[in-house]
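Much of what follows relies on a compact textual record of a protein's fold. Here is one such record, which you should read through line by line:
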Amino acid sequence: MRLLLADDEKDLVDALEAMLKHNNYSVDVVNNGQDALDYLMLDEYDGAILDVMMPQMDGITVVKKLRENKKNTPILLLTAKSEVEDKVNGLDSGADDYLTKPFVTKELLARVRSMTRRQASFTSNVLEMGNVTLSKHTFELSTEKDKVRLSNKEYQMMELLMRNPGNVIQTEQFLERVWGYDSESEINVVWVNISYLRKKLKALDANIHIKATRNVGYSLEMLDV
């Protein structure tokens, strides 16, 4: 499952990102409210964890703007405030849950599982194209022939391709979206993981394939019969 984590406390973000990835979540990280809003408006996430007090735009305003634009992404708000009025304000803004800092990481994981389960009752847990399905819960790519579990990076790349069938995703977009804007990874990591995905699709007898557009990027296409 794919989450957005927005907080400007670097040490906390680093710890939460590592913990969430260890628990098989795909995580995008931003450190201000405006970026959080932009990411959530432009893409589909299974849930978001937002700090209330952030630069550029506070978390409650982010939630209000999302709901005004009919975006129903589940939101867990984090804050150092513990007053009842603050909690009520957060929930009334459209947030799904509220957690006060400091918190135990096990509780945060439980809250995330709870809100994403509720969302799952309204949306499909799998992406489909051709004879291939991709599970957002298990990271498994499958056909009638077999199934294979993808690594975290492979899953994020395959999810991006399956959410945009037929559209070319630029190589730089993969690098930014999957490895992060601040990553020191070089562009060849994209080529390597595309190669892994192609081999797995072939082994599954998939009727879709990853097409390369020279010097641009990659798209997911149906195989010619």
